Amino acid sequence: MTDAREDRLAIRELIENWALYRDAGDWERFAGCWHADGVMMATWFQGPAAEFIRVSREGFERGVSILHFLGGATIDLAGDRAVSQTKMTIGQRARVHEVEVDVVCTGRFYDFVERRAGRWGVVLRQPIYEKDRMDPVDPAAKLALDRALLERFPVGYRHLAYLQSAIGFKVKPDMPGLKGPEVEALYARGRAWLAGKPL
């Protein structure tokens, strides 16, 4: 195999480990997916990876149910830097207006990764939220959403944001979607990262 192929396999393993360790509550190995200065951007959290790990662990122990499923990936390499895009779904279960629901949000993980001292790690994770839906766990249950609240959020993650708001999270209202200035700005950051510029 070429070095580039080996690097892509290592990065793909890193991204898969991130999802598996986080969803399983394997916090020590999850921390090993990040570099020390790593940053996580999500609907409900934006900040240092160490803090993200702490609050994720606390939520896990309280029964917060957020799971990830990964699909295909593409990786752009530039020496010791890379941008990885991975198709994903985020699934979250909670109660909304006294009805237990599942939200499934489809999108991509857009990851800025770097090799330091021979180890690839995540420097910045910025999900791209493309499409979502909300369904009662009991198909016979009746659920009526507040239309004005739902429409406050971008179409790519409005049901996820609605659920997260309902359980007390402050949700960021301008995350990247499939189209628009936010995702174009993210792509520009990715190109700059591969060109050697700082985040």
What's a quick, concise take on this entry?
The chain has 199 residues and is an alpha+beta fold. The protein is 34% helix and 39% strand.
In terms of topology, how is this protein built?
Blueprint: H1 3-24, H2 27-31, E1 34-41, E2 46-48, H3 49-62, E3 65-78, E4 81-96, E5 99-116, E6 119-136, H4 147-150, H5 158-166, H6 181-194
Parallel strand pairs: 1-6
Antiparallel strand pairs: 1-2, 3-4, 4-5, 5-6
Key attributes of the depicted protein:
6 strands, Nuclear Transport Factor 2, Chain: A, alpha+beta, 6 helices, six-stranded mixed beta sheet
Given the structure, what is the number of helices? Answer: 6
Architecture (CATH level 2) name:
Roll
Q: Secondary-structure element sequence?
A: HHEEHEEEEHHH
Helix-and-strand structural type? alpha+beta
Output the CATH topology.
Nuclear Transport Factor 2, Chain: A
First-last Cα distance: 31 Å
Shape: globular
Q: Explain this structure to me?
A:
With 199 residues, the protein is an alpha+beta fold. Helices cover 34% and strands 39% of the residues. It contains 6 helices and 6 strands. It has a 6-stranded mixed β-sheet with strand order 2-1-6-5-4-3. The longest helix has 22 residues, at 3-24. The protein is globular and about 55 Å long.
